Structures are given as structure tokens and as C-alpha cells.
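Worked example

This section walks through a single chain of length 67. The input is the sequence exactly as stored; nothing has been trimmed or padded.
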Amino acid sequence: MTGAANVSFWKPGMNKPSSYNIEKAGLADSKPEALTVLKAADDRYSVLVVSDGPQNGAPALYDIPRQ
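Given that input, the structure is written out below as C-alpha cells.
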């Protein structure tokens, strides 16, 4: 099963963060716990997300458009 998750972008001076919805990998009751940026390109970030709950953290890779 999968469920929705969000990655939010915020910079000093912004009134409100912008968010990008991702389809969360892993079990529905898992909770994303850590995000590490593996690569920052001009148009996207490649990130690794590790979750709390599943065995070994259910690591998942995502490509997220830069905003």
C-alpha cells in the first residue's frame, strides 16, 4: 500500500512554504522520518527518504522538481 506525503520548500522571507506531493513508498502506517538530498540539479532534487516503522526504514528515492 502507498499513501500521500509532501515535501515542503521554504526560504527566509517567504510568506508560506510551497509543497510538492509525492506518492509515499512503503506501508500505509509508515511515517517518513528523514530526507537526504543526494543531488541538486538546476531543475530537480534527487532525495532519499527513510521511514519510521518498516523493516530497515524502507528507503526510497525520489526526483522532486525544484520550485
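What to look for: Residues 1-9+32-67 form one domain.
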